[in-house]
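Re: weekly structure request thread

Next one in the queue (143 aa):
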Amino acid sequence: MESQTTTTATDAWTMYIYSLKSPVSKQKYPKRLATFFAFAGMPQNISIEEQSKLFVAKATATDNSNWAFNTILKFVMAQLERVNRKEIVIATLRGYLKSIKLFCDVAEVPVGRNLHSHTAISFSLPGISANTSNSRPSRYGGG
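Done, posted below.
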């Protein structure tokens, strides 16, 4: 059973990296995820791949069914405090959420009872819709 979890987590990390197509995403997403893993209490003296294995194992444990969602929500709340202190902009928080959501999707990490929990969190953020497009608005008003 343990080797299956380890294989799944390794495959999740590989799929996460593989799913990043843009050079900018390949650079930023793993760093954003590392920040989240640190917040989630993953050991910092191991590789991010090992951290991802631990995160998946903890998130998929039967006694921790809401742990991932609660951890994401606490992370978002902490980052919103940073937004309020003007340490980061809301777009940075959106970037964190996109990175976390992608990892949870490829790792098949259950995020609470609601399959759209990430969307629910995104709706609660000021200036963010459920559309997670990275495109900047056109200065001419068009799309």
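The chain is about 65% helix and 0% strand. The two ends are 49 Å apart (CA to CA).
Next request, please.
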